[in-house]
Automatic annotation (TrEMBL):
<feature type="domain" description="Transposase IS110-like N-terminal">
    <location>
        <begin position="4"/>
        <end position="63"/>
    </location>
</feature>
<dbReference type="InterPro" id="IPR002525">
    <property type="entry name" value="Transp_IS110-like_N"/>
</dbReference>
<protein>
    <recommendedName>
        <fullName>Transposase IS110-like N-terminal domain-containing protein</fullName>
    </recommendedName>
</protein>
<dbReference type="GO" id="GO:0006313">
    <property type="term" value="P:DNA transposition"/>
</dbReference>
<dbReference type="GO" id="GO:0004803">
    <property type="term" value="F:transposase activity"/>
</dbReference>
<dbReference type="Pfam" id="PF01548">
    <property type="entry name" value="DEDD_Tnp_IS110"/>
</dbReference>
<dbReference type="GO" id="GO:0003677">
    <property type="term" value="F:DNA binding"/>
</dbReference>
Amino acid sequence: MFDEDKTDRNDALRIADFLRIQRFTTSPIKEEKYMALQRLTRTRYQLIKQLTRTKQYFLKNLTYKCNTLAREMRDESTSLFSATVISLMTDDYTLDELAELPLEAFCDLLQEKGRGRFKEPEKIAKAIQRAITMSYRLGTLHKSLSMLS
């Protein structure tokens, strides 16, 4: 269809012809490998967009539950999105139970959920407990918030 070299000048002429007299209305046939690449790129983009939206949603709900956790965990070696932190905030324990756990038991729980990968579980346990005790909690809603997550 287009035998000329692909240059900016030729592209501009083709675009101008298309806009003036609707020339080149048929699109060139796309090769299969480019179509596959296009689909993979679009799928990856959509997955990243969904992951970002889900992380933002989790952070917003975590802020309702324990608004100082992000600040307290900033200096620690783990992320708020680690499987251990997500499990602690969404599974069987309420924030009050986590705050009242003895430090040794909390460290054991962290090591169990983290499969023994934490170098300093005491620091992380102290940071989480400090965040729980320092956070502003919604009075009558804190039980229902624990049930939602």
